Known about the structure:
The structure holds 2 protein chains of 2 kinds. By secondary structure, chain A is of the alpha/beta class.
Amino acid sequence: MSTTPVSLVVDQLIADRRTRIIVCCGSGGVGKTTIAAAVGLRAAERGRHVVVLTVDPARRLAQSMGLTSLDNTPRPVTGVRTGGTGGTGGTGGTQPLGSMHAMMLDMKRTFDEIVESHADPDRAAQILANPFYQSLSSSFAGTQEYMAMEKLGQLRRADEWDLIVVDTPPSRSALDFLDAPQRLGRFLDGRLLRLLVAPARLSGRTGLKVLNASFGMVTGVVTKIIGSQLLRDVQTFVSAMDTMFGGFRERAEYTYRLLRAPGTAFLVIAVPEPDALREASYFTERLERDGMPLAGLILNRVHRSPAARLSAARSLAAAETLQGFKDSESSALGIAALRLHAERMRQADSERRLARRFTAAHPLVPVAQVPAQPDDVHDLNGLRVIGAAFKAD
Amino acid sequence: MLVTVRDTDWDGVRLHVVTGKGGTGKTTVAAALALALASNGRPVLLMEVEGRQGIAQLFDVPPLPYEERRVAVAPADDSRPGGDVFALAVDPQSALIEYLQMFYNLRQAGRALTRLGMLDFATTIAPGLSDVLLTGKAAEAARRKSGGNHVYGAVVMDAPPTGRISRFLNVSSEVSGLARVGPIRGHADTVRSVIASPQTVVHFVSLLEEMPVQETLDGIAELHEVGHGGIRPGSIVVNMMREAELAGTKAPGRASLGSKTRDAHALEIALKAAGLGDDQGLAADLADELADEARTARAQRALRRELDGAGQPCYELPLITDGIDLAGLYRLAQALREQGAA
């Protein structure tokens, strides 16, 4: 069983013009958005026309890309170095002109737009004013995932960019964004919803008769729980949306197919911690099972030491020795440096063990490591530093 | 002389809600807090609401059913034996069935509803409904009495992440948008009275990194604005602190961002004295590490000041490498007790 992973070279992935969509996924807090932005910038500075679709960016990170407002529209990112001669690891010649746009997803706006584009103005206004629709479009479990995928589909169809980099919503589980759109689509198109709203319509069909017997009771209970007002809102909503029904599941299936199409690549992002890597494992397995194109794992915030040749044990022993030379300023500094180094080495060892465990379980998944940065990313230069980890060793 | 129970920061609190940004170790801290509270000798209920089975993984037990199960015993405190920690994984559907049984004696209907996928429907159709059922379960456990005494000394909830916590706890207004009248509304109002009382506090787990700190501060500010009169914020738990960070400014090299060349020179002398003089570049490499650490430390001190500015008690917990086991949880629980959390 090998524990040395194949290297993931992100530069190759972005240099390949056939790569049209890169999805960055992983559990919360692993730096998905930062990696997505760094991949996007790197690709733009290598001649791609890139749009980065981000779902929930940190304020500072958004500012680092020049995004100040959440307006659901791709905005050009300024300061992208294009057209110069390839700096590091380039082909040596002049880089073709690239560009970068970035946008933040506004899920309610995206939902509203779907409604507006599928219904005449009167009906659209009626739907948008419906309390159930308002609740559905702003806080329904899965709406964010559904709308992220919807936006991805729109950007792909617009065909203005040759590479779309998207990060995934901060879901309960990393897998949610794959399932939620279909779940929402099923729900909106579902027999149950129609049945509840208009049981009479279906009552004549065989097979449903049995269900129907308990149905009066069921609607009764549901009314009791959620109140008749809500039920009426749902009913109004469903009849207003009737023309669009069927469309939701179709849309969800379209994006799902898009995710499986050649030209899409998934990057699973994790940090070298047990929980994040466990989640990365689940995700890797799921992508493989669904035939989704997994490009590899990006292990973010890996701690490395420039003095790795000095082991933790030797470092601590040396610090011990220095304890004998008390009161000297240099030995106090030496003790601090050696202890710090020992702690870093221990951390690096533990991270390596975790990474090896992942590779033992998924020997074929290529891995790239991004070193931990002493500061948070505040500008394009910060993103470039991260992007430096994407080149071939 | 009177025998006094030791003072803690949260005397009188029955429901501890633990939130935090993803990746901050919220579940671990919730479990450690439950153990710390149980050290007082009373049983504590630790519940999770997101269907992740994080508690089961943490305590290395099979997935938890919808049933309160003992998962650990707290370490003894002084002369007293430690209390039991029970765990419960709440999901909206089971909570709804239980609710229907309790209030309407609708066991039969519950089954029919499940078969039809109707519970899934009802809990997804009204997002606020799920939240009322989940917080309702926590409120019920916190208030549950047997023979005049509270069954649990405290209830600890591993709650949704910081970004969603206010909406999650703001049950009555969430529901009122949908269910204006009716039993769920009534239930929501009862839950609300527990959540908004001083008996409930919300603890925030953070790391000394920009995004978790920002979310923590935003989260605390949002709690003050929830409903009428807000929800009481609890402590800020700064989690996963490395030894050097815990040592804080006491360690030389962290305190001042000295000149790297000067540090390297001093280190060369020290390394020679320690018998590591042969490695030519080592002093410079270690000086790099020190400088890196000093930069991190400076940023972290600024973040720590921001957290202190929130005016809530701050506790610090050490980083436990190689995964958390029961011994690690005990260690964290002990650290919480020493700092007055329980």
